[in-house]
């Protein structure tokens, strides 16, 4: 992603069902050596649809109001032992490619 966008990410925001698996999110942070943040809601698509409906019906006055909702993030910081992470990732790649 960084190579394609020609920028360096400070953190990666993850959402959707994968965020329910804390092991995978931590592994992602370790592998990327970047913080990974989630809002802790696997069903974020349904939340987005509800927010849009709330905007349409006037329950929410503006997108700025929505930006303040669910702004609490859970951060997964990379661990120090990158060698082990890279070994595990290499083993995982070998397993799925066989």
Describe this structure in words.
This protein has a three-stranded mixed β-sheet with strand order 1-2-3, with helices on one face. With 98 residues, the chain is mostly helical. 8% of the residues are buried. The protein has one domain. It is built from five helices and three strands. The longest helix is centred in the last third of the chain and has 16 residues, at 82-97.
Present the secondary structure layout.
Layout: H1 2-5, E1 12-13, H2 22-32, E2 36-38, H3 44-57, H4 63-68, E3 74-76, H5 82-97
Parallel strand pairs: 1-2
Antiparallel strand pairs: 2-3
Q: How would the global form be characterised?
A: elongated
Low-confidence runs: none
* Whole-number total of structural domains: 1
Strand neighbour order, sheet with most strands = 1-2-3
Mean pLDDT: 87
**How many strand elements?**
3
What is the straight-line distance between the termini? 26 Å
Give helix and strand order, one letter per element, not per position: HEHEHHEH
Q: What is the helix tally?
A: 5
Helical proportion? 40-55%
Question: Strand portion, in percent?
Answer: 5-15%
* Helical/strand content category: mainly alpha
Major sheet details = 3 strands, mixed
Radius of gyration: 17 Å
Which terms summarize this structure?
single chain, 98 residues, three-stranded mixed sheet, elongated
Task: Describe the structure concisely.
Helices cover 52% and strands 8% of the residues. It contains five helices and three strands. A three-stranded mixed β-sheet has the order 1-2-3, covered by helices on one side.
């Amino acid at each position: 992603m960084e190579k394609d966008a020609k920028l360096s990410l400070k953190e990666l925001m993850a959402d959707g069902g994968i965020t329910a698996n804390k092991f995978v999110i931590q592994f992602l942070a370790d592998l990327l050596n970047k913080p990974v943040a989630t809002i802790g809601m696997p069903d974020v698509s349904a939340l987005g649809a509800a927010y849009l409906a709330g905007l349409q019906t006037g329950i929410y006055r503006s997108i700025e109001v929505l930006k303040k909702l669910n702004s609490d993030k859970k951060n997964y910081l990379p661990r120090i032992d990158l060698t082990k992470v890279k070994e595990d990732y290499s083993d995982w790649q070998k397993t799925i490619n066989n």
